[in-house]
Amino acid sequence: MRAAWYDRQGSPEDVLQYGELEEATPGPGEVRVRLRTSGISPGDVKKRQAWLGAPMAFARIVPHSDGAGTVDAVGAGVDPARIGSRVWVYGAQSYRARGTAAQSTVVPSELAVDCPPEVSDEIGACLGIAGITAHRAVFADGPVDGKVVLVQGVRGAVGSIAAQLARWGGADVIGTVRSREEAGDAVVALDDDPAEAIRALAPNGVDRVVEVAFSANLELDLQVCRIGAVIAAYASPDARPSLPFWPMLFNNLVIRLLGSDDFPAQEKRSAADDLTRAVAEGALTVPVAQRYPLAEIAQAHAAVEGGRAGGRVILTIPD
To answer: Of 9, 101, 158, 261, which has the fewest CB atoms closer than 10 Å, so is most exposed?
Structure first.
């Protein structure tokens, strides 16, 4: 099969290769998915970069955890009726060597989620890491119906899905963006006076914060959170942020840290079901900014790594 891989970490043009690999056969409880799309997440890029000094988990890695396609083979214990089913895949390269940057991938059956017609291959390739992280950020601490949810970085991959899921769950949503030019209704620019603007929209404070930049935004979060609020953080520019302990304590804040590879399995399945349903109901869309053929994976990684993508990036997989 045609695939992309790397045998060492480094820059995309130096380490990413494209060629032929032997196709895997599904084992017990597994399915093989004939892929049509592969989604690139920042986490995929960081693994290839050796971010924070993380070593290669395997001698050879076919990258990317997310994708979409059709089940074409099943292992023992899996209903053969799954063959021919359209699916979206998550976690393909989580604790496994072979992800979705290939013509096929083998995953545990539960990681291949049945796609209704409303879930396109492109959307399916964008739901896994970003969607499940967003779902966990919004719903891990209970329903949000009637609550106010602040989404920091609402135009980002996780933030945009989190905002849509929170609205789907009945919340009032306030988003933040970096500059006034990007702002709009219920979207606040961080280069203005964001605390005042957020308080004008939520005079009693916000109940949940979906946080993309924990260390940078913590002071702002403290200014707008109501007592007992939850800050759910999935990224931080400072790897060792300092915490204003007493103001956080007096506000009885809950800090939830979100590491997507290690969410509980049942929570991932619940998130996958909700994401699929939200797309089918028209409550969730995921625009794709750039598409690259699998053979141009190095250029695609460079676009994500350099922040030039302007949105989600996917690979199209050859037949």
So the answer is: 261
